[in-house]
Input
Amino acid sequence: MTGPAGPAPGSYTRSWRLAAMLAALAMLGPFSIDTYLPAFPNIGADLAATPLEVQQTMSAYLFAYALMMLWHGALSDALGRRPVVLAGLACYALATLGCALAGSIEVLWLFRVLQGLCAGAGLVVGRAMIRDRFHGPEAQRLMSQVTLVFGLAPALAPIFGGMLASAFGWRSIFVALLGVTLLLLALSLAALPETLPPSHRRSLAPRSLLADYRTVLGRREFLLLAGMVTFNFSGFFLYIASAPVFLMRHLGLGSTEFAWLFVPMVIGIMLGAFTSGRVAGRLVPRQTIALGYAIMFTAVALNLAGTWLEPPGVAWRVLPIAIYTFGSSLIMPSVTLTLLDLFARNRGMVSSLQSFVQIFFSAVNAGAVAPFLAQSTHWLALGMLVATLASFSLWHIYRRSPGPSSS
Output
């Protein structure tokens, strides 16, 4: 179940076309969250729901998203990468249609759960596809290209969603998501390659699956790195989950002004991904990760200072968050590839489990932690500090573990 017995990466050509396709597939997850954030008040008014009930549409989606993360990768290890992605897109399209037609908050919860069960296939399987075909600096460069394109989603989604909600109502957001999904399904049918040959596929027999899951979850290095990624992401996801309160109540912005948070945040993500690709092969992963943490801690210090000193202008309140996403994005490709290399024959499962840990914690974050911390900008800044310290501590423990890989 471990070691180099998995499919050997071949001499394939890295291209922006492949990166764009994999990034577009991965975008469904964040688009499903960020696009409808500006429409929370509209949804509550139309469906006679409280703000907390509307907030739970995000938690319901995220819990289902996390649960199915456990299976996307294992299914792709057994059935191939391409069929799992195509089935996920088809199911997501049906669930999105249900969201657009929902007549009550309870029905919206149901179809958000169904969306969550399908939306993660492209993200999980795409990571495994990259590692199936590429290795070393080339894999890091392609992972960075995907992150660079993928980073557009959090910037475009709330702007797009706010415009649609203002012009056509909140249901138009899900109609637009349905159109995007059908387009992705058509493109994937035409051009998505299969990267896992039948000779390297795993069994779906329950005993074999259970043994594989126990092997991955029983490895200390996996738990440390998965936790590190999770807390790394949580440092800025707090602000995504709290965006309606943070922007509209604390900063006094309107439903069409979410770009003030999301555009700088995404610029940081894209610059971090670009930098990660540029330093691939020049810095070893350990050095890249150390640089990323230095940038993140600088951002945390600026965020704490800005929150307590309260400088005038919205820009000063969102700049530290953008700097944080730069450091976080710089780290992610190196850590993700290190995780995938722990189990060469179970890359899909490893990607699934890492994503499950991250998204499950994000669901808890969105449903319980963020609503509490969002009551004060001071608490949000402290939340970013705690998440960063937790991530760095796990990385420090991993580095001191006996025989970590070349990270």
Summary: The chain has one domain: 16-400. The radius of gyration is 20 Å. The chain is about 80% helix and 0% strand.
